[in-house]
């Protein structure tokens, strides 16, 4: 019972704000302490709601006549606007017919001049774009704005260009052609790579390049500023630039960009040796480290074997036995054990040769392993790079050929590094191995000769 009364009270209270939005949510003025009080509050809420509904009905009936008046006024206003709309549509149609007639008369009177102005507008637009991106704008700024205004005038069809306008186009084109054949020394503000503006002596080579000292500069059309390039071309090209900017007379060679910056930007975007190595990633660095280790070990072996070969050759010419070479140590072993039987002496000499073989063939196996591992690591890096490239293509598609070509190029870097390491290491290993075998062959030959000499002595 208590739950039912609470639900009834909530429904009554909840409908009070719906009766009139201007009234606030009704709340009991005091706490409910018994069911009787709750019942009284519900009854009170019903009475107040009924009262408000009656007031609303009375207000609506009182304003009924006024609502009829407002409706009639709205209908009259709508009819007035409809008549005005019909009048405007009629006027628009008449004006359109008149405009079409005037346009036909204008085209008829212009005749071939229309095609002339069309070509003139196209030439003006091209000239404006050319002047905006030309490095001659460092001397003659804002030229392209005049051409853009003339192009807008030709495209508007509001008025015809004057003779002065056409002569201005001719003048700007002629001046650009003349300036493209001049070499000028200027003092301009240059933005350095640190972002600081400095005054510098600049040489403008026609309409192709800006030079300063031993560096190429770049003109930014959007800002009209001259900036220093973050990267410069090869050193030999910069040497030509320095000689050219410092020359005071005579003829001097310098590399220019006939495309007015396109080739230079492509040249600067091309990766150099350091960039290529970085493209190889972790595997590329491992290959380079292995290559450095292999070359160092191979050179050390080659130098050691060259010195050893000379000492062995000297020992063969000397009667005195020295211990600083393998042959001398073999001969000392023979002297120490020459009283032994022939078979025992041969075993002693063989043992001595085996002791000398270790230092002579030291690191050769490691060098050979490096020469084999390097190209395999390069192949591993290439396969890994190709997998990453195809994953990128799967995500972004093949809309950009540069993306796929660049990824494949980076993937092949490790193969190039692996082959670049393997080829010289294999060569050095072959050279060191050949010298080592030559020394060992001499030792075996000399030891065999000593044994043969001992056998002849015993037989005699």
Explain what the structure shows.
The chain has 460 residues and is of the alpha+beta class. It folds into four domains: 2-62; 111-180; 182-260, no CATH class; 281-459. The protein is 72% helix and 7% strand. It is built from 14 helices and five strands. A five-stranded mixed beta barrel has the order 1-2-3-4-5. Strand 2 and strand 3 form a beta hairpin. Helix 1 runs parallel beside helix 2, helix 4 (113-133) packs parallel to helix 6 and helix 10 (281-317) packs parallel to helix 14. Mean pLDDT is 80; it is low at 1-26.
What Rg is obtained from the alpha carbons, in whole angstroms? 50 Å
* Largest β sheet strand count, sense and barrel closure: 5 strands, mixed, barrel
In terms of per-residue confidence, which ranges show pLDDT below 50 for 5 or more consecutive residues? 1-26
How would you classify the helix and strand content by structural class?
Answer: alpha+beta
The helicity comes to over 70%
Gap between N and C termini, in Å?
142 Å
Largest beta sheet: what is the strand line-up? 1-2-3-4-5
DSSP strand tally: 5
- Rounded mean pLDDT is 80
> How large a portion of the residues is in β-strands, by DSSP E?
5-15%
Instruction: Return the domain count.
Output: 4
Q: How many H/I helical runs?
A: 14
Helix-strand pattern = HHHHHHEEEEEHHHHHHHH
Shape: elongated
């Amino acid at each position: 019972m208590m739950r039912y009364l609470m639900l009834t009270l909530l429904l009554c209270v909840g409908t009070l704000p719906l009766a009139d939005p201007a009234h606030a949510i009704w709340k009991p003025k005091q706490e409910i302490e018994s069911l009787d009080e709750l019942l009284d509050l519900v009854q009170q809420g019903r009475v107040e709601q009924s009262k408000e509904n009656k007031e609303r009905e009375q207000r609506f009936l009182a304003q009924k006549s006024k609502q009829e008046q407002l409706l009639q006024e709205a209908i009259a206003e709508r009819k007035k606007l409809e008549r005005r709309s019909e009048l405007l549509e009629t006027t628009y149609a008449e004006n359109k017919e008149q405009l079409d007639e005037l346009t036909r008369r204008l085209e008829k009177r212009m005749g071939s001049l229309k095609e002339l102005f069309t070509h003139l507008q196209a030439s003006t637009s091209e000239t404006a774009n050319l002047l905006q991106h030309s490095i001659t704008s460092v001397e003659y700024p804002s030229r392209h704005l005049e051409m853009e205004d003339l192009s807008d005038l030709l495209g508007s069809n509001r008025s015809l260009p004057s003779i002065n306008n056409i002569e201005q186009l001719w003048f700007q084109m002629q001046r650009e052609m003349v300036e493209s054949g001049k070499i000028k020394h200027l003092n301009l503000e240059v933005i350095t790579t640190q972002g600081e503006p400095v005054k510098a002596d600049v040489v403008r080579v026609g309409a192709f390049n800006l030079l300063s000292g031993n560096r190429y500069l770049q003109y930014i059309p959007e800002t009209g500023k001259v900036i220093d390039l973050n990267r410069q071309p090869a050193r030999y090209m910069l040497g030509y630039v320095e000689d050219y900017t410092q020359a005071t007379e005579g003829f001097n060679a310098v590399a220019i960009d006939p495309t007015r910056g396109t080739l230079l930007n492509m040249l600067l975007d091309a990766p150099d040796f350091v960039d290529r190595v970085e493209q190889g990633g972790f595997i590329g660095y491992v290959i380079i480290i292995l290559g450095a280790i292999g070359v160092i070990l191979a050179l050390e072996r080659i130098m050691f074997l060259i010195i050893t070969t000379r000492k062995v050759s000297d020992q063969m010419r000397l009667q005195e036995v020295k211990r600083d070479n393998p042959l001398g140590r073999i001969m000392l072993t023979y002297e120490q054990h020459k009283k032994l039987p022939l078979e025992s002496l041969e075993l002693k000499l063989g043992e001595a040769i085996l002791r000398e073989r270790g230092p002579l063939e030291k690191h050769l196996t490691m060098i050979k392993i490096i020469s084999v591992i390097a190209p395999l690591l390069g192949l591993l890096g290439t396969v890994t790079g190709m997998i990453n490239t195809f994953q990128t293509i799967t995500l972004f598609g093949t809309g950009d050929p540069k993306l796929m070509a660049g990824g494949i190029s980076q993937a092949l870097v490790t193969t190039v590094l692996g082959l670049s390491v393997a080829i010289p290491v294999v060569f050095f290993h072959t050279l060191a191995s050949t010298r080592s075998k030559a020394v060992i062959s001499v030792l075996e030959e000399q030891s065999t000769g000593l044994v043969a000499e001992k056998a002849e002595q015993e037989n005699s």
